[in-house]
Design goal:
Layout: H1 2-10, H2 13-33, H3 37-44, H4 48-57, H5 59-69
Helix pairs in contact: 2-3, 2-5, 4-5
Length: about 70
């Protein structure tokens, strides 16, 4: 995780936002295929704690996530 933190330090804000958006989209695709949060997170490489943090901080992601889970 130290390497990850160092990488984050050198990322620009816009490149970080793009990466997070990509991660969210990949996770949403996994949730549509496998509507189990733990498994979708494992397959997309996103920690469950990150998923739940995104659910609280991003209303659009939260809505998209609920839609993917209950399709």
């Amino acid at each position: 995780t130290i390497i990850y933190l160092l990488q984050l330090k050198y990322m620009t804000a816009s490149s970080l936002q793009k990466r997070i958006k990509q991660e969210k989209n990949i996770l949403l695709e996994q949730l549509e295929k496998t509507p189990i949060v733990q498994i979708a997170c494992e397959k997309s490489g996103v920690a469950r704690s990150t998923y739940y943090r995104w659910m609280q901080s991003d209303k659009v992601f939260a809505r998209q996530s609920r839609e993917a889970l209950f399709k």
